[in-house]
Amino acid sequence: MPTTNPQTAAKSTATQRCIDPACGSRFDINERIYVCSNCGGLLDVVQELATSAEQLQDLWTRRLASNDARDRSGVWRYRELLPFADEAPIVSLAEGNTPIYEAPRSAAYCGLNALSLKHQGCNPTGSFKDTGMTVALTQAVSLGVGTVVCASTGNTAASLAAYAARAKLQCAILVPRGQISHAKLAQSLDYGATVLELAGNFDDAMRAIRELAEDESIYLVNSINPFRIEGQKTVAAELLHQRGWQVPDHVVVPGGNLGNSTALGKGFSELKELGFITRLPRLSVVQAAGAAPFASLFKSEVKHETLDWTSWPALIPMEHPHTLATAIKIGAPVSWQKALRAVLTSEGKVLSVNEQEIADAKAIVGLDGVGCEPASASTVAGIKRLVADGTIGPEDDVVAVLTGHVLKDTDYVIRYHQDNLFSDMETSKRSKIKGAYRNPPALVEPTREAIMKKLKSKDVSTKPRR
Ligand code: F0G
Predict the structure, then answer these.
(1) What is the C-alpha end-to-end distance of the chain, expressed in Å?
(2) Stretch 278-299: mean pLDDT
(3) Which of 98, 185, 292, 454 has the fewest CB neighbours in a 10 Å radius?
């Protein structure tokens, strides 16, 4: 049964609304539900905003110089967009504030004059999940819940573990055994989470955790929880604020469970409705070819003229998704309808890229001195394709969102550079990923002569690279 706690810090003017226009049921902002109890549809948080865009732009810029913990957070700085009262106590690790890097090598690789990388891997736990988790955990504390839970391919788990520790809440995470990176597992253990390893994949874990969340003592903070989306949508505000409210032509994100694309789409749309911007960036989503149910849906509907997502057929889940980009190894994305709405509204695209393309793009992002985890590099691989097919012009203003830090999956990095990475590490049907941009370590005797000789040799060069 849904519960409502009158003590909560959420704004009374905000509500939760079913995304299906044919239903549109509304629920109290503090009702602890994840989907519409009338039709099973996903939920949006909606609210009226009284202040003008200009006033908010000034206020948010003034907050950049403030030492208030809420203003230091790149999420809570934009708190007028969030469904909380201004004085609400927050659970924060000073998340957000992530840099936008110019990436000339990646740009040239994609066939672009310039490319910007918004690096969400620079968040406190090394992934974009923190921008949503700060809001979901603030709501969890406000509701007075006992235990917070999630299913995860690793990053949501690490993020939840950290924020639950900050909030002094018990937390349990469900991860597919042997399928998440060691770094992510290590983080979750270190932050004190109860880690439950499951024989199965992420989709099995997601199914199990949704059943578990029917218990009143449990609060689910996967991105099906609309408060996660509220936090992640502020990335759109931070990005535009950093760019002086100049709208990029394209924003490209990786797609797994499709919470991130949903959130950015919601953020940009709300900022447009509020008058901050006059047009939307085209939002495109890139999946790994072995885990691409959303890209398949999009491909099958290429001739579909309608921008009305409700008239599209249902996404067909992929039963055995596989990709070395384990963060996005997902066959049944929960938020596909919301993500479809965001892509159609902004006239974006959905596509998939193969393992070789992801691996090479990742190495190129590294050569810009930026680095990211494999799932994040799918964006750069996808942009290269979108430039090749003419969707993106060479002069266009393009932002790729990097979702995770390079240290999130070092096994992958070492294997690539040692030319020892295989497209499927689990089965015998594996094919080798060429370390086309590999940079393996060189063995050398510990003497000056030997080191100098090595530096002058063909395989190791000290000459600056172009
Ligand atoms: N990139 C990274 C690094 C991720 O960890 C994820 C998702 C995605 C992209 C895809 O984002 O799901 O919002 O479409 N990771 C989730 C997790 C599923 O459990 O950490 P999405």
Answers:
(1) 62
(2) 97
(3) 454
